[in-house]
């Protein structure tokens, strides 16, 4: 069962490295921009973009598509450059959080498929679709199909079907969600993370106030501590810094490791795969 967790760790380190690299380049550019030579140059704008498109069903010119200005343009003013850099870093940080969420979903499906492949009797109890003759890849495909059907074993929002399976089959995982050395309610944190990811992908990083109306005070505090935002009318505008994104990526990695650890314990397999862990 070590392949899914290792593949997930590889994806996370790629995301972390990319975010750090992008931030370094942007901040280096900002440092050059803030030089006295450029500040005294009298330049008012740095660059502009104009949206130009063609009419796919309109006339052409000797077989060449004719393009037309839309009248929509954007100019980056010198006085707004600092704000632009901050926006780009926040946007990339948010994207990394969303991509890590997608990678974790894949990990969940693959690790549970691997666990059921090793415990075929349990697999057949979970779903009649699992057969002894199936390969590990066929188990993964079956899990993916099942998770897309909301009413089935692994359906539900925020991967709740997978978490119910983990709680049902691992006391270690069930206890970990609320008792851990980070003193954080992982179950609530993941629900917040899911809401944040949804806002990033579908709502321009706006968490709608109505979506958090039923949250407890502790859950709102957890939201505020882990995912920076500013309050605007009827919404929370996410302002994800690189440090908060890296913190979230570390937390989702630790959650993934606990899933791996819990299922490995249930399967009597080695779980101490991290470097320098005591193997005794």
Written description of the protein model:
The protein has one domain (2-41, 79-266). The protein is built from 10 helices and 7 strands. The chain has helices at 2-33, 36-39, 81-118, 120-126, 136-147, 160-169, 171-176, 186-202, 217-226, 242-266; strands at 45-54, 60-61, 64-65, 67-77, 206-208, 229-232, 235-238. β6 (229-232) and β7 (235-238) form a beta hairpin. α1 (2-33) packs antiparallel against α3 (81-118). The protein is globular and about 70 Å long. It starts with a helix and ends in a 14-residue tail after the last helix.
| Main sheet overview | 3 strands, antiparallel
| Uncertain runs | none
Taken from the alpha-carbon principal axes, the silhouette is globular
Spatial ordering of strands, largest sheet: 5-7-6
Number of strands: 7
**Roughly what percent helix?**
55-70%
- Count of separate structural domains: 1
Mean pLDDT: 90
Count of alpha/pi helices: 10
SSE sequence, one letter per element: HHEEEEHHHHHHEHEEH
- DSSP strand (E) fraction? 5-15%
Please state the CA-atom Rg, rounded to the nearest Å: 24 Å
What class would the helix/strand composition place it in? Answer: alpha+beta
Q: Whole-Å distance between the termini?
A: 20 Å
